[in-house]
Automatic annotation (TrEMBL), chain A:
GO molecular function, one term: lyase activity
Keywords recorded for this protein, A-Z: Lyase
Lineage: Bacteria, Pseudomonadati, Pseudomonadota, Gammaproteobacteria, Oceanospirillales
UniProt-listed SUPFAM superfamilies: PhnH-like
Highest taxon of the lineage: Bacteria
Organism of this sequence: Marinomonas maritima
A Pfam family matched in the record: PhnH
Record carries keyword Lyase: yes
Keyword set includes Lyase: yes
Protein name in UniProt: Phosphonate C-P lyase system protein PhnH
Gene encoding the protein: phnH
From TrEMBL, chain B:
Protein name per its UniProtKB record: Phosphonate C-P lyase system protein PhnG
Source organism: Marinomonas maritima
InterPro entries documented for this protein: Phosphonate_metab_PhnG (IPR009609)
Lineage per the UniProt record: Bacteria, Pseudomonadati, Pseudomonadota, Gammaproteobacteria, Oceanospirillales
Sample GO molecular function, one term: lyase activity
Short name of any one Pfam family annotated for the protein: PhnG
Record keywords: Lyase
NCBIfam families referenced in this protein's UniProt entry, alphabetically: PhnG_redo (TIGR03293)
Length: 208, 154
Protein backbone atom coordinates (compact mmCIF):
# COMPACT_ATOMS: atom_id res chain seq x y z
CA UNK A 1 0.00 0.00 0.00
CA UNK A 2 1.42 3.38 -0.93
CA UNK A 3 1.07 6.01 1.75
CA UNK A 4 -1.48 8.67 1.00
CA UNK A 5 -0.75 12.32 1.54
CA UNK A 6 -2.88 14.23 4.00
CA UNK A 7 -3.03 17.97 3.50
CA UNK A 8 -3.69 20.69 6.04
CA UNK A 9 -7.32 21.56 6.47
CA UNK A 10 -8.83 24.69 7.95
CA UNK A 11 -6.66 25.79 10.87
CA UNK A 12 -9.59 27.28 12.77
CA UNK A 13 -12.31 24.93 11.53
CA UNK A 14 -15.27 26.78 13.02
CA UNK A 15 -14.34 30.29 11.97
CA UNK A 16 -12.83 29.33 8.63
CA UNK A 17 -15.83 27.31 7.53
CA UNK A 18 -18.21 30.02 8.71
CA UNK A 19 -16.28 32.59 6.69
CA UNK A 20 -16.34 30.46 3.54
CA UNK A 21 -20.03 29.73 4.07
CA UNK A 22 -20.75 33.48 4.37
CA UNK A 23 -18.84 34.16 1.16
CA UNK A 24 -20.75 31.42 -0.65
CA UNK A 25 -24.03 32.80 0.64
CA UNK A 26 -23.14 36.20 -0.73
CA UNK A 27 -22.08 34.77 -4.08
CA UNK A 28 -25.22 32.62 -4.34
CA UNK A 29 -27.62 35.43 -3.40
CA UNK A 30 -25.93 38.03 -5.59
CA UNK A 31 -25.11 36.02 -8.72
CA UNK A 32 -22.18 37.40 -10.66
CA UNK A 33 -20.46 38.74 -7.55
CA UNK A 34 -16.96 37.38 -7.08
CA UNK A 35 -15.87 36.28 -3.62
CA UNK A 36 -12.55 34.92 -2.37
CA UNK A 37 -12.21 31.62 -0.52
CA UNK A 38 -9.06 29.97 0.72
CA UNK A 39 -7.67 26.93 2.49
CA UNK A 40 -4.02 26.24 3.42
CA UNK A 41 -3.18 23.58 0.82
CA UNK A 42 -4.19 22.06 -2.50
CA UNK A 43 -3.95 18.40 -3.49
CA UNK A 44 -3.40 16.93 -6.98
CA UNK A 45 -5.74 18.74 -9.36
CA UNK A 46 -7.97 20.09 -6.59
CA UNK A 47 -7.38 23.80 -5.92
CA UNK A 48 -7.10 25.02 -2.33
CA UNK A 49 -10.11 27.26 -3.03
CA UNK A 50 -12.22 24.30 -4.15
CA UNK A 51 -11.07 22.35 -1.14
CA UNK A 52 -12.19 25.26 1.06
CA UNK A 53 -15.70 25.07 -0.43
CA UNK A 54 -15.75 21.32 0.11
CA UNK A 55 -14.70 21.68 3.75
CA UNK A 56 -17.31 24.33 4.40
CA UNK A 57 -20.24 22.65 2.67
CA UNK A 58 -19.82 18.90 2.86
CA UNK A 59 -20.40 16.40 5.62
CA UNK A 60 -21.67 12.85 6.11
CA UNK A 61 -25.11 13.76 4.74
CA UNK A 62 -24.13 15.35 1.43
CA UNK A 63 -23.12 12.67 -1.08
CA UNK A 64 -20.50 13.90 -3.51
CA UNK A 65 -19.87 12.78 -7.08
CA UNK A 66 -16.37 13.24 -8.49
CA UNK A 67 -15.65 13.48 -12.20
CA UNK A 68 -12.83 11.26 -13.53
CA UNK A 69 -10.47 14.27 -13.43
CA UNK A 70 -10.84 14.48 -9.65
CA UNK A 71 -11.11 10.77 -8.91
CA UNK A 72 -7.68 10.16 -7.40
CA UNK A 73 -7.10 8.30 -4.18
CA UNK A 74 -5.38 11.34 -2.65
CA UNK A 75 -8.34 13.63 -3.33
CA UNK A 76 -10.85 11.05 -2.13
CA UNK A 77 -8.81 10.34 0.98
CA UNK A 78 -8.45 14.01 1.91
CA UNK A 79 -12.09 14.90 1.25
CA UNK A 80 -13.19 11.97 3.31
CA UNK A 81 -10.69 12.65 6.09
CA UNK A 82 -11.53 16.32 6.47
CA UNK A 83 -15.28 16.27 5.87
CA UNK A 84 -16.46 12.66 6.17
CA UNK A 85 -18.33 13.14 2.89
CA UNK A 86 -19.54 9.92 1.21
CA UNK A 87 -18.28 9.73 -2.37
CA UNK A 88 -20.85 8.11 -4.66
CA UNK A 89 -20.47 6.41 -8.03
CA UNK A 90 -24.03 7.14 -9.07
CA UNK A 91 -24.32 10.83 -9.96
CA UNK A 92 -28.10 10.71 -9.38
CA UNK A 93 -27.55 10.30 -5.65
CA UNK A 94 -25.17 13.24 -5.34
CA UNK A 95 -26.02 16.55 -3.69
CA UNK A 96 -22.70 17.96 -4.87
CA UNK A 97 -20.77 17.24 -8.04
CA UNK A 98 -17.21 18.31 -8.68
CA UNK A 99 -15.92 18.51 -12.23
CA UNK A 100 -13.69 20.26 -14.74
CA UNK A 101 -15.27 22.49 -17.41
CA UNK A 102 -14.48 20.22 -20.36
CA UNK A 103 -15.89 17.14 -18.67
CA UNK A 104 -19.49 18.21 -19.02
CA UNK A 105 -19.24 17.33 -22.72
CA UNK A 106 -18.22 13.79 -21.94
CA UNK A 107 -20.97 13.27 -19.36
CA UNK A 108 -23.91 11.51 -20.95
CA UNK A 109 -27.41 12.96 -20.70
CA UNK A 110 -26.31 16.27 -19.12
CA UNK A 111 -28.13 17.84 -17.22
CA UNK A 112 -30.28 14.80 -16.40
CA UNK A 113 -27.25 12.92 -15.20
CA UNK A 114 -27.64 14.93 -11.99
CA UNK A 115 -30.59 14.99 -9.63
CA UNK A 116 -32.62 18.17 -10.13
CA UNK A 117 -34.86 17.93 -7.08
CA UNK A 118 -38.52 17.03 -6.81
CA UNK A 119 -41.62 19.22 -7.02
CA UNK A 120 -42.03 18.99 -3.26
CA UNK A 121 -38.35 19.56 -2.53
CA UNK A 122 -36.75 21.44 -5.43
CA UNK A 123 -33.88 22.57 -3.17
CA UNK A 124 -32.54 19.00 -3.09
CA UNK A 125 -31.21 19.44 -6.62
CA UNK A 126 -27.51 18.94 -7.15
CA UNK A 127 -25.02 21.79 -6.80
CA UNK A 128 -22.35 21.46 -9.47
CA UNK A 129 -18.92 22.82 -8.61
CA UNK A 130 -16.94 23.50 -11.78
CA UNK A 131 -13.26 24.18 -11.29
CA UNK A 132 -12.05 26.49 -14.10
CA UNK A 133 -8.89 28.38 -15.03
CA UNK A 134 -10.23 31.83 -14.25
CA UNK A 135 -13.34 33.80 -13.38
CA UNK A 136 -13.56 37.59 -13.73
CA UNK A 137 -16.33 40.05 -12.95
CA UNK A 138 -15.71 41.93 -16.17
CA UNK A 139 -15.49 41.16 -19.84
CA UNK A 140 -12.39 39.15 -20.59
CA UNK A 141 -10.84 36.52 -22.81
CA UNK A 142 -12.99 33.72 -21.52
CA UNK A 143 -16.67 33.22 -22.25
CA UNK A 144 -18.46 36.47 -21.46
CA UNK A 145 -21.85 36.16 -19.82
CA UNK A 146 -24.49 38.74 -19.02
CA UNK A 147 -26.51 37.79 -15.97
CA UNK A 148 -29.92 39.08 -14.93
CA UNK A 149 -32.50 37.91 -12.42
CA UNK A 150 -33.11 37.84 -8.67
CA UNK A 151 -30.26 39.31 -6.65
CA UNK A 152 -28.99 41.41 -9.54
CA UNK A 153 -29.99 45.08 -9.72
CA UNK A 154 -29.64 45.59 -13.47
CA UNK A 155 -27.17 43.19 -15.00
CA UNK A 156 -23.88 41.57 -14.05
CA UNK A 157 -21.09 40.76 -16.46
CA UNK A 158 -18.79 37.84 -15.79
CA UNK A 159 -16.12 36.15 -17.80
CA UNK A 160 -15.47 32.46 -17.18
CA UNK A 161 -12.67 30.65 -18.98
CA UNK A 162 -13.19 27.57 -21.12
CA UNK A 163 -16.86 26.65 -20.70
CA UNK A 164 -18.05 23.77 -22.83
CA UNK A 165 -20.74 24.33 -25.52
CA UNK A 166 -23.08 21.83 -23.84
CA UNK A 167 -22.95 23.76 -20.59
CA UNK A 168 -23.37 27.13 -22.33
CA UNK A 169 -26.41 25.87 -24.24
CA UNK A 170 -27.93 24.67 -21.01
CA UNK A 171 -27.15 27.81 -19.00
CA UNK A 172 -28.41 30.21 -21.68
CA UNK A 173 -31.59 28.12 -22.01
CA UNK A 174 -31.02 27.40 -25.74
CA UNK A 175 -32.93 24.16 -25.47
CA UNK A 176 -35.62 25.67 -23.23
CA UNK A 177 -34.82 22.96 -20.74
CA UNK A 178 -33.41 25.10 -17.95
CA UNK A 179 -36.34 27.47 -17.64
CA UNK A 180 -38.84 24.77 -18.58
CA UNK A 181 -37.99 22.57 -15.64
CA UNK A 182 -37.90 25.45 -13.11
CA UNK A 183 -38.14 25.33 -10.06
CA UNK A 184 -36.25 22.07 -10.52
CA UNK A 185 -32.72 22.41 -11.74
CA UNK A 186 -29.03 22.64 -10.98
CA UNK A 187 -27.06 25.36 -9.24
CA UNK A 188 -23.51 26.09 -10.33
CA UNK A 189 -20.39 27.30 -8.60
CA UNK A 190 -17.53 28.30 -10.91
CA UNK A 191 -14.27 28.49 -9.06
CA UNK A 192 -10.69 29.34 -10.00
CA UNK A 193 -7.50 29.37 -7.89
CA UNK A 194 -8.86 31.80 -5.33
CA UNK A 195 -12.27 33.17 -6.21
CA UNK A 196 -15.67 31.94 -7.25
CA UNK A 197 -18.90 33.03 -8.87
CA UNK A 198 -22.27 31.31 -8.52
CA UNK A 199 -25.03 30.76 -11.05
CA UNK A 200 -28.14 29.59 -9.22
CA UNK A 201 -31.04 28.26 -11.28
CA UNK A 202 -32.91 31.58 -11.02
CA UNK A 203 -30.26 33.51 -12.92
CA UNK A 204 -30.87 34.20 -16.59
CA UNK A 205 -27.71 33.84 -18.64
CA UNK A 206 -26.98 35.50 -21.94
CA UNK A 207 -23.81 34.61 -23.84
CA UNK A 208 -22.16 37.73 -25.28
CA UNK B 1 -16.93 -9.35 11.72
CA UNK B 2 -13.59 -10.97 10.94
CA UNK B 3 -10.71 -8.54 10.98
CA UNK B 4 -7.14 -9.13 9.98
CA UNK B 5 -4.76 -9.83 12.85
CA UNK B 6 -2.68 -6.78 13.69
CA UNK B 7 1.01 -6.67 12.90
CA UNK B 8 3.51 -6.10 15.70
CA UNK B 9 4.06 -2.51 14.62
CA UNK B 10 0.32 -1.88 14.83
CA UNK B 11 0.13 -3.50 18.25
CA UNK B 12 2.99 -1.41 19.61
CA UNK B 13 1.46 1.76 18.20
CA UNK B 14 -1.93 0.86 19.61
CA UNK B 15 -0.26 0.36 22.98
CA UNK B 16 1.42 3.77 23.09
CA UNK B 17 -1.65 5.57 21.73
CA UNK B 18 -3.77 3.91 24.37
CA UNK B 19 -1.34 4.75 27.18
CA UNK B 20 -1.13 8.41 26.12
CA UNK B 21 -4.89 8.69 25.79
CA UNK B 22 -5.62 7.17 29.19
CA UNK B 23 -2.86 8.96 31.08
CA UNK B 24 -3.24 12.15 33.01
CA UNK B 25 -2.74 15.15 30.75
CA UNK B 26 -0.41 17.01 33.11
CA UNK B 27 1.94 14.10 33.62
CA UNK B 28 2.08 13.40 29.88
CA UNK B 29 2.91 17.01 29.10
CA UNK B 30 5.42 17.30 31.96
CA UNK B 31 7.25 14.12 30.94
CA UNK B 32 7.41 15.03 27.27
CA UNK B 33 8.27 18.73 27.45
CA UNK B 34 12.00 18.09 27.15
CA UNK B 35 11.56 16.32 23.82
CA UNK B 36 9.51 19.05 22.23
CA UNK B 37 12.33 21.53 21.62
CA UNK B 38 13.22 21.94 17.98
CA UNK B 39 10.38 19.70 16.86
CA UNK B 40 8.31 21.12 14.09
CA UNK B 41 4.74 20.02 13.43
CA UNK B 42 2.04 21.02 10.97
CA UNK B 43 -1.55 20.86 12.12
CA UNK B 44 -3.33 18.66 9.62
CA UNK B 45 -6.44 18.67 11.74
CA UNK B 46 -6.20 21.06 14.69
CA UNK B 47 -7.45 19.61 17.98
CA UNK B 48 -11.25 19.62 17.92
CA UNK B 49 -13.89 18.54 20.40
CA UNK B 50 -16.75 16.32 19.31
CA UNK B 51 -19.07 13.52 20.27
CA UNK B 52 -18.81 9.84 19.60
CA UNK B 53 -21.42 7.21 20.21
CA UNK B 54 -20.49 4.43 22.58
CA UNK B 55 -21.92 1.03 21.72
CA UNK B 56 -21.86 -2.00 23.92
CA UNK B 57 -22.94 -5.62 24.12
CA UNK B 58 -24.80 -6.98 27.10
CA UNK B 59 -22.38 -9.24 28.91
CA UNK B 60 -19.85 -8.62 26.15
CA UNK B 61 -21.50 -11.11 23.80
CA UNK B 62 -25.12 -9.98 23.32
CA UNK B 63 -26.40 -7.85 20.47
CA UNK B 64 -25.20 -4.26 20.11
CA UNK B 65 -26.95 -1.37 21.78
CA UNK B 66 -26.14 2.32 22.17
CA UNK B 67 -24.77 3.11 25.59
CA UNK B 68 -24.67 6.85 25.06
CA UNK B 69 -22.57 9.71 23.75
CA UNK B 70 -19.11 10.61 24.92
CA UNK B 71 -17.06 13.77 24.48
CA UNK B 72 -13.78 13.18 22.71
CA UNK B 73 -11.02 15.42 21.38
CA UNK B 74 -9.07 14.41 18.31
CA UNK B 75 -6.06 15.84 16.60
CA UNK B 76 -3.80 15.01 13.64
CA UNK B 77 -0.36 16.49 13.06
CA UNK B 78 2.48 15.88 10.65
CA UNK B 79 6.07 15.96 11.82
CA UNK B 80 8.85 17.59 9.80
CA UNK B 81 9.98 14.09 8.80
CA UNK B 82 6.56 13.34 7.34
CA UNK B 83 5.08 11.05 9.98
CA UNK B 84 1.40 11.52 10.72
CA UNK B 85 0.46 11.51 14.40
CA UNK B 86 -3.12 10.82 15.40
CA UNK B 87 -4.79 11.09 18.78
CA UNK B 88 -8.24 10.50 20.19
CA UNK B 89 -8.71 11.26 23.87
CA UNK B 90 -11.68 11.30 26.20
CA UNK B 91 -12.81 14.74 27.36
CA UNK B 92 -12.11 18.19 26.00
CA UNK B 93 -8.46 18.83 26.76
CA UNK B 94 -7.01 20.13 23.49
CA UNK B 95 -3.45 20.35 24.82
CA UNK B 96 -3.57 16.70 25.80
CA UNK B 97 -4.80 15.72 22.32
CA UNK B 98 -2.20 17.89 20.60
CA UNK B 99 0.69 16.53 22.65
CA UNK B 100 -0.45 12.92 22.22
CA UNK B 101 -0.64 13.44 18.45
CA UNK B 102 2.81 15.03 18.34
CA UNK B 103 4.29 12.18 20.37
CA UNK B 104 2.54 9.62 18.19
CA UNK B 105 4.29 11.13 15.18
CA UNK B 106 7.66 11.17 16.98
CA UNK B 107 7.24 7.60 18.22
CA UNK B 108 6.97 6.39 14.62
CA UNK B 109 10.40 7.83 13.97
CA UNK B 110 13.05 5.20 14.86
CA UNK B 111 15.51 7.85 16.07
CA UNK B 112 13.18 8.90 18.90
CA UNK B 113 11.23 5.74 19.50
CA UNK B 114 13.47 4.02 21.99
CA UNK B 115 14.06 6.95 24.34
CA UNK B 116 10.41 8.04 24.20
CA UNK B 117 9.18 4.54 24.98
CA UNK B 118 11.57 4.30 27.89
CA UNK B 119 11.07 7.74 29.38
CA UNK B 120 7.42 8.49 28.66
CA UNK B 121 5.33 5.50 27.68
CA UNK B 122 6.70 2.95 30.14
CA UNK B 123 6.45 5.21 33.23
CA UNK B 124 2.92 6.23 32.22
CA UNK B 125 1.92 2.62 31.58
CA UNK B 126 3.33 1.71 34.97
CA UNK B 127 1.28 4.44 36.69
CA UNK B 128 -1.83 3.31 34.84
CA UNK B 129 -1.29 -0.31 35.89
CA UNK B 130 -0.81 0.73 39.52
CA UNK B 131 -3.98 2.80 39.48
CA UNK B 132 -5.84 -0.04 37.84
CA UNK B 133 -4.64 -2.54 40.46
CA UNK B 134 -5.55 -0.17 43.29
CA UNK B 135 -9.02 0.36 41.90
CA UNK B 136 -9.52 -3.39 41.40
CA UNK B 137 -8.45 -3.92 44.98
CA UNK B 138 -10.87 -1.29 46.30
CA UNK B 139 -13.71 -2.76 44.32
CA UNK B 140 -12.86 -6.33 45.34
CA UNK B 141 -13.26 -5.39 49.01
CA UNK B 142 -16.93 -4.64 48.45
CA UNK B 143 -17.60 -7.81 46.48
CA UNK B 144 -20.75 -9.66 47.50
CA UNK B 145 -21.34 -13.31 46.68
CA UNK B 146 -24.90 -14.44 46.13
CA UNK B 147 -25.95 -17.98 46.95
CA UNK B 148 -29.13 -19.67 45.95
CA UNK B 149 -30.39 -21.84 48.76
CA UNK B 150 -31.63 -25.24 47.83
CA UNK B 151 -35.26 -25.59 48.82
CA UNK B 152 -34.88 -29.23 49.63
CA UNK B 153 -37.89 -30.55 47.71
CA UNK B 154 -36.13 -33.69 46.64
Amino acid sequence: MTALTLIKGFQKPTHDSQRVFRQLLKAMSEPGTLVCVDSPESIDSLHASTFAVCQAMMDQQTPLWLSPHFTTSNIKHNLHFHTGVPIVEDSQQALFALMGPAEIDSVERFPHVFFQGTDEYPETGCTVIVQVQSVKDDLGEGVNLRLTGPGIETAQLVSISDLSPTLLDYLSNQTGERNGSFPLGLDFIFIDQNQLVCLPRTTQVEVL
Amino acid sequence: MISKPMSDTQKTRQHWMSVMAKSNSDSLIKLSNVYMDQQDFENIRPAEVGLTQIRGRMGGTGSQFNVGDMTITRCVVQSAKGHYGHSYIAGRDKNHALRAAQLDAMLQDPTHQHSLMENIIQPLAHTLATQQAQKANNVAQTKVNFFTLVRGED
